[in-house]
Amino acid sequence: ALSTGDSTDDVIIPLDQPVKITYKYSSDNSDTVDYTNATTNTTYFRIYSNPETTGMTTLITQTGYTASYKVNSAATGATWVITSTGTWAGLGFGATTMTNADMAYGTITDGAPVIKDTKATGHDVPADDATNNFTNIKGTSLTGGGIVLAFDRLFDTGDATGDYIIPVNVAFDALWAFGDTLGTQHSNTNRGTTSVTITTPDVSAISDNGFTLAYTIKEDNSEITWKVTAPTTGWLSLAFGDNGSDIIYGSVNGSTVTVKDAKSGSPNPVDDATENIVGTPTGSESGGNTTLTFVRKVDTGDSTDDVVLPLDASFMLTYMYSSNNSDTVDYGNANKKIVNFKIYSNPNLSGTTELLSKAGFTLSYKLSSDSQSATWVIKSTGKWAGVGFGATSMASADVAYGTIADGVPVVKDTKTSGHKVPADDTTNNITNVLGTNTDSGIVLQFDRKLNTGDSEDFVIPLDTSFDIIWAFGDTFGSAHGDTNADRGTASIEIEGPEDKEIVRSEGTKALGANHSIAWKVYENDTIKLTYTAPTAGWIGIGFGSSTSMTGADFYYVKDNALVDAKGTSNDAPAVDATQHGSDFSVSTTNNVTTMSFTRALNTGDNDDYAFVPGNSIPALWAYGETTTFGNHGSTNRGFTTFTLVEKAYTAGTATFPSGAPTGLGLKFRGYDPDGNDDDVIVFEFTAPTTGWLGIGFGVSETMIGGDILYYGKPTSSDPLQLVDMKATANSAPTKDSVQDGKLLKYTPGTNTST
Question: What is the pTM of this model?
Answer without folding.
Answer: 0.54
